[in-house]
Design a protein that fits this description.
about 120 residues, about 0% strand, mainly alpha, 6 helices
């Protein structure tokens, strides 16, 4: 024999189900927010690394010319990216050129030792 359900027990049961659904929804939304914040930080860091900025220094790297102020400013802006950029197929060869360290020194940029 089935137990007799009162109107209040049905409402309470529906309220618990709705509360659990909302809790799950908020949990999922919070996780999505955390993941998107991490992706945003990663995207911002990647957007600062722009190997094209190093093109301002190419003439100084391959010749004996002193670097321009624009070259030095852009090289300082890319300093955190230099190891990654040495592996770039377009500009990596220039950054491995001995002139790259000379230009970095002239600009006051510490050229990192990359693995």
């Amino acid at each position: 024999m089935k137990p007799f359900l009162t109107h209040n027990s049905i409402i309470f049961s529906k309220f618990q189900t709705m509360e659990n659904s909302l809790r799950s929804c908020f949990t999922v939304a919070f996780m999505v927010l955390l993941l998107s914040a991490g992706q945003l930080q990663q995207t911002e860091a990647q957007s600062r690394c722009d190997s094209v900025q190093l093109s301002w220094c190419l003439q100084s790297i391959v010749s004996n010319m002193p670097p321009s102020q624009d070259c030095c400013r852009r090289l300082r802006g890319q300093q955190a990216c230099l190891c990654r950029e040495t592996r770039d197929p377009t500009f990596g060869g220039y950054l491995r050129h001995p002139g790259a360290r000379r230009v970095a020194t002239a600009c006051g940029v510490t050229f990192p030792r990359c693995n």
